[in-house]
Amino acid sequence: MNRKIRYGMIGGGRGAFIGGVHRIAASIDQQIELVCGAFSSDPQRSKDSGADFFLPPERCYGNFEEMIRTESALPADKRMDFVSIVTPNHLHFPAAKAALEAGFHVLSDKPATFNLAQAKELAQIVKATGKLYGVTYNYTGYPLMRQARQMIEEGKLGEIRKVVVEYPQGWLATMLENTGQKQAAWRVDPAICGAAGCMGDIGTHAINLAEYVTGLHIKELAADLTIFLAKEGRRLEDDGNVLLRFTNGAKGVLHSSQISIGCENNLSLRVYGSLGGIEWSQLDPNTMIVTSLDKPKQIYRTGLGYLGSAAGAATRTPSGHPEGYLEGFANIYRNFANHVRAVINGTQPNPLDMDYPTIEEGVAGMAFIEAVVASSAANAAWTPLDYTPTPRAKYGDASLNSDRGGLS
Amino acid sequence: MNRKIRYGMIGGGRGAFIGGVHRIAASIDQQIELVCGAFSSDPQRSKDSGADFFLPPERCYGNFEEMIRTESALPADKRMDFVSIVTPNHLHFPAAKAALEAGFHVLSDKPATFNLAQAKELAQIVKATGKLYGVTYNYTGYPLMRQARQMIEEGKLGEIRKVVVEYPQGWLATMLENTGQKQAAWRVDPAICGAAGCMGDIGTHAINLAEYVTGLHIKELAADLTIFLAKEGRRLEDDGNVLLRFTNGAKGVLHSSQISIGCENNLSLRVYGSLGGIEWSQLDPNTMIVTSLDKPKQIYRTGLGYLGSAAGAATRTPSGHPEGYLEGFANIYRNFANHVRAVINGTQPNPLDMDYPTIEEGVAGMAFIEAVVASSAANAAWTPLDYTPTPRAKYGDASLNSDRGGLS
Amino acid sequence: MNRKIRYGMIGGGRGAFIGGVHRIAASIDQQIELVCGAFSSDPQRSKDSGADFFLPPERCYGNFEEMIRTESALPADKRMDFVSIVTPNHLHFPAAKAALEAGFHVLSDKPATFNLAQAKELAQIVKATGKLYGVTYNYTGYPLMRQARQMIEEGKLGEIRKVVVEYPQGWLATMLENTGQKQAAWRVDPAICGAAGCMGDIGTHAINLAEYVTGLHIKELAADLTIFLAKEGRRLEDDGNVLLRFTNGAKGVLHSSQISIGCENNLSLRVYGSLGGIEWSQLDPNTMIVTSLDKPKQIYRTGLGYLGSAAGAATRTPSGHPEGYLEGFANIYRNFANHVRAVINGTQPNPLDMDYPTIEEGVAGMAFIEAVVASSAANAAWTPLDYTPTPRAKYGDASLNSDRGGLS
Amino acid sequence: MNRKIRYGMIGGGRGAFIGGVHRIAASIDQQIELVCGAFSSDPQRSKDSGADFFLPPERCYGNFEEMIRTESALPADKRMDFVSIVTPNHLHFPAAKAALEAGFHVLSDKPATFNLAQAKELAQIVKATGKLYGVTYNYTGYPLMRQARQMIEEGKLGEIRKVVVEYPQGWLATMLENTGQKQAAWRVDPAICGAAGCMGDIGTHAINLAEYVTGLHIKELAADLTIFLAKEGRRLEDDGNVLLRFTNGAKGVLHSSQISIGCENNLSLRVYGSLGGIEWSQLDPNTMIVTSLDKPKQIYRTGLGYLGSAAGAATRTPSGHPEGYLEGFANIYRNFANHVRAVINGTQPNPLDMDYPTIEEGVAGMAFIEAVVASSAANAAWTPLDYTPTPRAKYGDASLNSDRGGLS
């Protein structure tokens, strides 16, 4: 097959934030092509949005059902290959379900669904349809997070003991949702974004990253969530502190916030094992500190020759040419599209391309959100995560991948 | 009175760590003089240690009882003015009690005592004797921590909402205590250091600093402590994660560790209020980030003219000439000695000199240690702190100081 | 016109570095389309390279003359709008000349030409043809460099006094060019890259950035260039230190290196005026320190609301979502393509879109290279730059733009 | 000898800056005692200053001649052992000469003298009297600068190629000297501070540090000095940029400034050799980056076990307890006093104690100042340094020390 992979977008019309990010991420490597979209529930707005990307009006739909139905009827050489779902959370499940059942692969923004029950149902649908499903826990796309995962898989850090993961922001320190700011408005509305605010929007990214890098799962957690602007009318937590216990006995802490003034998007991860540790901050994503017993700390930098295969495959520029958020996001798109291409071609995918979050992570993410909300409601009682993780393949062990559809 | 303030040291003989720190801290400003010591329970070792500082053998005692008895009998113009206690924890209380009751002021290393009951008893003794008592929660001596306290007192950050305080170290990631390392050995022995390991050694510093800066107190906490090297024989926790609830409704998290490889002495504090925040790390103590709504972050630096009176009074060099751990520690000594001098002279102390930790903080520290241990034993159950804080004076409000003996 | 801007690429076949960067930069905003290329002088290699981007073989040419001739003959609705030149330096001029004279706009990699005489001739050709010409001094595309320029234009820093600009790298600390590394080989060959090595490859970027941000020009310079690996056979300087004197009396220093081991691509710029300064490093491009008299330093961050219009227009993601090298590069492409679109549409371009380097900067860059080489040959004698700068428009002064074709 | 080393201070009365620094530096290790002083040319002010340190009035002199004469007449068990000279520059030479010739060792603030001729004469006096002479180029006292020197001596960085040394400040960006600020006033007065302003005050520190760490000497330099506030009446340069050529063929650049707003005391040093490099900033003195070919950068930190003997001997606290400016300064005092003690005792000094700047560095410093001024006056003509360096001992090679009185 000598053509670009084609996708249609659900959501992401003018004024949206994450839709634009997805489109850039899809475009960077020039291997993926936007061919249609249901950018808005307002048909004219959908067409206007599509025109921004030079899409013909007939492929700009007023809703995803129409898009899926119409695209399904197109000839194979014109039809989209996958859909990208970038709506607010409450629409993720119905859109994914419809697309998968119509035979389209799906790449969805996170969280996978509105609640855990939907996620589990979606997992069944993915399995039943045999279609590919990815969810953009995009921070796993950073080269150095892949390096960290690979180092931990190879035992470089020894047995993992301690995980500190943070995701503070400050943008909701005031009632921004009352000012007409669209991004703020839906993120604080439980009918649209689900049971959690801060934890569903960003805490879930932090936990996903911690599990991705360590290969561990959370066994139970104790969460103390707070709505600091409750008196002003906010209904979902804008801050949370969580104690974590991992399956192997490791301990950890997560704190995440939307009211920590001056914090932008300060996701950071520190992992310490019996032999060493890693320290990384998303604000400086091309630097990772690697520690070890009795030796100077080392500064690992994106793009250098001493990095492993996973980081290398996720890098586009030489060291010192900073890669950022969009490139990390694009790595998820690249991996997913390459997997789609392999499926279309009937070839074996490159194991490194299967390194993207799947429905497995989608379910885990929803289980986290429900656990953290339940724990907090019970005054930070220890609460297990209500799902059973599937063992994942290691980078060097492609044979395990068949069960889970990938490395992720 | 035109002479140096004189002190005797209990503990701190050759091979000790913190004794040397206290001696440097006392020396820096050339206002305090070491005149005697019970440096070791081995009389010869005590004399040898004293000789390192050119003390005459007759003032190097084999135990603190002998020192206190003998010094009490000296003429007033030769006798020590206060004792500095730098022994392992289990001796803090008897040494302090003996000194106070013999009429000497006391400056003790932290924690104040071996357990909370002793601390409460010591508080009574301090009150009864009317002698000054300080405890070296030395990190409050950093100029920028005083700046932070002053800014928060003045309302610059608004209502405090969130506190993140960390104190990871990595030096006990292996069984260092089995190698003959003296510092490690006593810090992991419950008979010497008390009910807590990591939390008693460093976690208490972190909490003290958080309370000092915010002016808040911890209402209750939920702690998950771990002995990661339990199988190897360690008996006290070498790691802990703690959820914090403050008296005003603020929330927080503390994590502290001795097994986080590569971490040196990484105390850090972040505080966020409704108007702004501060971020500070002890590894770079002359820099503090100050955040505020909708404005660029600011970098506050030790020694510059825009800082307040409290930071200014705690600074010895112009900006860009880094002050460090020893100078911060020396600020506690300077404040305490100036207070002693005022008492001797019968004058009113400078309110800024009263900015040192007293028995109030000593009791709070022990209450924290007992609460954190109890909470963890109850599977991280919420546990209140078993003491009643006394309201403290603000920097600008000297009149309140009479009840507590100072600003601290 | 409701279509993407179309371009053809000269150079940039498989194995090249900068060609891929240009293609990503062109793709990110989905407004520009690669339609043809002369990717290699080997026709088959050109076709193979084109196939990587799904170009039809008939639009993959074996040389730029063929490409320009053939594309010129295509109907207007298919023909490329501009050419992107990404060859080694010695081909920049003939390719640009051919394209311009055939009526195509040109966006060229830097330096503009092989020598200053060519650059001056090219300036005449640009003027004569009336076509747009841009040169990818891409570091001016970073949002915070545009912010710095705007602040200086507005007088926020006062009269500029001191400029420190650095560009150390370490990749040529050994004879990498002897190992088959293609990027190294041509960059050290005077027949291909021109009279300078380090200064032509990266020093010119540094000077361009300094002039861009300050709005000043270099009056004269004194340069000490060194070939540290001369004994091993290297023929062009791999290191240089340069004293700078600017037209307004400001002084500065440039140092650039390819043998500073551990340096990646460490372009940094510091500018100090009578009222304040700015400090910026390309390795952390979303942070700029702003200094002012007697106030705390401020941390300006990409994506925040307090930034000016120029930075805002160059930003794609919210603060805390790091934008990197590719996004900065893409800003040059976006500006250039928007200008092309305005020309095609016959409309007035947005002044902010005219903020890209033109032939003016191309000539300045070549004048710098020749001056620095001449000065060093004369033992660091003061050497003026052999060209006359054209006054440039300020951000707020669009009316001046007609003379120079833009803000840049 | 079982007593403290005794010193008298010349200069450093109330209101001075550097005198207080010297006194703290002398006090930190409790091995040196201030016994007398000529703190001010006003006898009463001298006595008042001495009273601050509890000195008896009879040992507070009105001028250094009186002090030297009177102290010389005291019995050996009371007399000062050395003098510390902390006056403005023009008095360094006469005070040092008088003290040496009266048989006292001398530790002087930098620069050694008012001009090079004096320095050469002083070198003869030092040699003739056989007394010890040190000059407080204090930045060589930082543990990591000693580590860097030791690593370079051991060949860890290979042949040194490139040196970048900076010392920008911003405190004289306005006419501070007109505001009554005493520190500013004398530093801009050529009659008091000598031929250079910025270069004599701080540039000389930078060059000394570069030579100390690399073991190289400057062969010639080309300097461009500027008085940015000349119109306002300033008479000495407040900024300078200098090209450097070292004896081994290494190249370098120095820039130093007093008008770079926001810079505090930003001395930094970068050295690159054929095998690796080091990068260090005085603002974060306990961190040094070590680079090497094809490996991750390493972070060397004060106080850790992998450091060499020289850094180890210069460290007082465990890693993570920041040592600062005063401790680095104290290392010069400690080394010097230990050498004095060895001389008094007639024992062999510890070679590590001989690691302090001597008259050799004093002469080099003055030669630098005169060269830089002469070069700038000749429009940045290459100017050699007018003195002949004596080869210095390596850390591991104590036998060479006899010629130069030390490692330095």
UniProtKB/TrEMBL annotation, chains A, B, C, D:
Highest taxon of source: Bacteria
Residues covered by the GFO/IDH/MocA-like oxidoreductase domain: 145-279
Domain Gfo/Idh/MocA-like oxidoreductase N-terminal: 5-137
Stored InterPro entries: Gfo/Idh/MocA-like_OxRdtase_N, Gfo/Idh/MocA_oxidoreduct, GFO_IDH_MocA-like_dom, NAD(P)-bd_dom_sf
Single annotated GO MF: nucleotide binding
Pfam families: GFO_IDH_MocA (PF01408), GFO_IDH_MocA_C3 (PF22725)
Name of the molecule in the record: Putative dehydrogenase
Organism for this UniProt entry: Prosthecobacter vanneervenii
